[in-house]
Amino acid sequence: MAKLKKKKLFIFIGAVVILLIFIVGNLSKSGGKVTVQTETVIRGDLQESVSGSAKIQPEVQVKISAKVSGQIIELGVAEGDYVTKGQFLAQLDQEFYLSAVDQASSNLNYARAGYEKALNEYERSMKLFEDNLISSAELEIAKSTYEQSKAQVEQSEAGLNQYRDNLSKTTIYAPMDGTVSQLNKKVGEMAMGSEFTLDVIMVVADLNKMLAETEIDENDVVHVSVGDSSVITVDAFPDTTFRGIVKEIANTGTTIGAGTQEQVTNFLVKVSMLERPERLRPSMSATVDIITETCDDVLKIPIQCITMREPIESEGGATTGQEDSSESKKESSEDEEAQIEVVFVVRDGIAYQTPVKTGISSDTEWEILSGLEEGDEVVSGSYRVLSRQLQDGNPVKVDNSLKELSEEEE
Question: Coil, helix or strand for 160?
Fold first, then answer.
């Protein structure tokens, strides 16, 4: 067992020695220089955007439900049909409501008969009272009976109107022009009419005006404004993009995972589609890129060129770096506060750590406000070299062959 352990130890030591020889050999070949890839500082246009996954929805859609309960005995449309305002959609069983109208009508006739009798009695009592043939108390009784019968007629009329209104609600018509985008009920099923619950029979939507609904993180939504232009990519049309414009931003956010480390607050943003493919359907998945800011003719570099490093002390003991830092950096740890945004500029084969001030950014590029000039050569990789290994004043060997190869493959 001991021999086996010694054997493994010798193998491990041998592997380390070979690795060290390989590293020393490479360093000797490159003359101790760090191999890097570089990019050139250029001028151009830059767009900052906020992205989010989205669902395609109609701008206007109406959920059709019954206002009274009843069994569906007829449907006048099928899912996907186009309807016009006032077109017949569905019919509920009217038997119960017809009976209620008949009963209310009978009650009204009975109340009217009583009213006629009480009116005649009241008019006769007034004449008798004028001739001093009855007392004022008897007149008051006749008047009270008349007023009660009048109120009964009004109550019966209101009841009849209510039952007639319920009867009319058993026939459902389209409230707008549009397409039946969803049909939830079949003939024979019950439609539960209620003022407090919504039992949707169907949905009618205007598919000529569509929007993409996306949820944007609270840290990004502050940069979004109504009227911002957008680019919409629908999963069903992967090779096509559609123009859009922000129509509405929710005032109140939705919190997911409240009270946990994964707590996220998002705000619903609605983006109107200025272009609509014919086969676009509600609830299709999409991605929305909202352009929050655009800058023309600015200095820019690839986003991977910027790294965080501690400022370099000058000969006088001062540090060179950005004078102003963002509030987010002030709230971070002390180590993070000590670091600034820098790039490594290559001049005459030497990499110089250079602090920069950045502006807006896209998914791939940063705007440079100060610290660089057009045409400067800056280190872009590799990530390991740029983030840890490379130091100010290191001699470097520029090798962009891998980058050029990947560009050719694209």
Answer: helix
d(C-alpha 387, C-alpha 190), whole Å: 67
Count of H-run helices and E-run strands, the chain: 8, 25
Position 394 in a domain: yes
236 and 174 within one domain: no
Tokens 């993180």 found at: 217
Token digits for 241? 């993009």
Q: In the chain, how many domains are there?
A: 4
Task: Answer whether residue 11 is part of any domain.
Answer: no
The answer as to whether 119 is a domain residue is yes
- Measured distance CA(50)–CA(12) in Å, rounded: 50
Residues 315 and 196 in one domain: no
pLDDT by position in tens, the chain (length 410): 444 455 555 565 655 555 555 444 444 444 568 899 999 999 999 989 999 999 999 999 999 999 999 999 999 999 999 999 999 999 999 999 999 999 999 999 999 999 999 999 999 999 998 888 889 999 999 999 999 999 999 999 999 999 999 999 999 999 999 999 999 999 999 999 877 778 999 999 999 999 999 999 999 999 999 999 999 999 999 889 999 999 999 999 999 888 888 888 999 999 999 988 888 999 999 999 999 998 999 999 999 999 998 888 654 444 454 444 444 444 444 455 588 999 999 999 999 999 999 999 888 999 999 999 999 999 998 888 888 889 999 999 998 886 654 444 44
Domain assignment of residue 250, given as a range? 50-57+209-295
Which domain CATH number covers 107?
A: 1.10.287.470
Whether residue 129 is found in the same domain as residue 242: no
Q: At a CB cut-off of 8 Å and minimum separation 6, what does 93 contact?
A: 70, 71, 72, 73, 170
**Do 279 and 401 belong together in one domain?**
no
